[in-house]
TrEMBL record:
Record's keyword annotation contains Signal: yes
Lineage of producing organism: Bacteria, Pseudomonadati, Myxococcota, Polyangia, Nannocystales
Native source species: Enhygromyxa salina
Annotated signal sequence range: 1-16
Keywords: Signal
Entry protein name: Bacterial Ig-like domain-containing protein
Length: 320
């Protein structure tokens, strides 16, 4: 099993200018010591978290419903939440007992009340959510409400809440999740998805003139004579004022850090694409806002600047 040395040599060695070969007996059970990029590089009870192998002993929560990128119909007031919880006993006790506690369900990044759940099929009130992509979180906590700290103690699922017109395209930043902590000096894989829209290498564009909404109630009055094809690619931006900056005198449309089309992505599968942001794009610690915007094949916003189809999250960049 591969391990990168993430230990800092003692100051006395550095001061002595020692350049001789350094060896050590590696203990793969140590937490937050060894560098990693995937969990397969870590020990059996560990996971790769913030590029370090960390102890993942504790509850392992996985969301089984809604399914990943499931579409929820417009006007749905409640969302049925299902999950699995390993190494964890769900209880209504308020005591802080190891291996026991409650599960708290919430929608990340949205002002919505959280609900403690102790059974399958719990109902979450989503009547206040706007159409678009949302991230469901299910987190294991002790009976007194203290969260379990191992990474797998929180399960998640990204789902769509469809618009009034169910054919309207929607975009989702699948990974990372809001609040993700990224380390300076590391690249970051970003996964995006789209609904009613396909990622393609190239194609013919039938442009909808601003401010026509092709899926609005007055679409028949403004649609072009050509067929509007829901396909193109996506841009990922690291801009705090997107999409407002598209209307600046000098538009920010070309200031993207990733273009997600098949030839420029790590992987593309129909309506999902993954690409890597280079490490040098992260220049300082602090919050970073990611936005994904759907684009025509010629890189202009789809379907126009008045009807922007986008998704947005904020992560935190830290120094290691």
């Amino acid at each position: 099993m591969y391990r990168s040395l993430a230990l800092v040599l003692p100051a006395t060695l550095a001061l002595a200018g020692m350049v001789a070969c350094y060896t050590a007996d590696f203990d793969e059970t140590l937490s937050d010591v060894y560098y990693c990029q995937t969990s397969t590089e870590c020990g059996e009870t560990q996971t790769c978290f913030q590029f370090r192998c960390v102890d993942d002993s504790g509850p392992h929560v996985r969301v089984t419903g809604p399914e990943s990128l499931q579409n929820v119909q417009f006007g749905t007031a409640t969302l049925t939440v299902n999950y699995t919880a390993e190494d964890f006993t769900v209880s209504d006790s308020n005591a802080k007992t190891e291996g026991e506690g409650k599960l708290v369900v919430s929608i990340a990044g949205t002002e919505i009340s959280t609900t403690s759940i102790i059974s399958q099929g719990a109902q979450l009130d989503i009547s206040s959510l706007a159409p678009g992509a949302h991230r469901l979180l299910v987190q294991a906590v002790y009976g007194d409400g203290t969260p379990y700290t191992n990474p797998s103690a929180t399960g998640s699922a990204v789902f769509y809440l469809e618009a009034e017109n169910p054919s309207r395209p929607q975009a989702a930043l699948v990974s990372p999740l809001p609040g993700y902590v990224h380390v300076l000096g590391e690249a970051l894989d970003v996964t995006v998805a789209a609904r009613n829209f396909a990622f393609v290498e190239s194609g013919e564009d039938c442009r909808v003139e601003d401010p026509c909404d092709p899926w609005g109630p007055d679409a028949a009055m403004c649609l072009p004579a050509c067929a509007v094809v829901p396909q193109g690619h996506a841009h990922v931006y690291m801009l705090s004022d997107y999409p407002a900056c598209l209307n600046n005198a000098i538009t920010c449309n070309g200031d993207y850090v990733l273009s997600l089309r098949p030839s420029e992505s790590v992987g593309v599968s129909g309506t999902t694409a993954t690409a890597r942001i280079p490490a040098d794009r992260f220049t300082e610690a602090g919050p970073v806002t990611f936005s994904i915007g759907l684009q025509y094949n010629d890189h202009l916003p789809y379907p126009n600047q008045s009807v922007i189809i986008y998704d947005q999250i904020t992560i935190e960049v830290v120094e290691r």
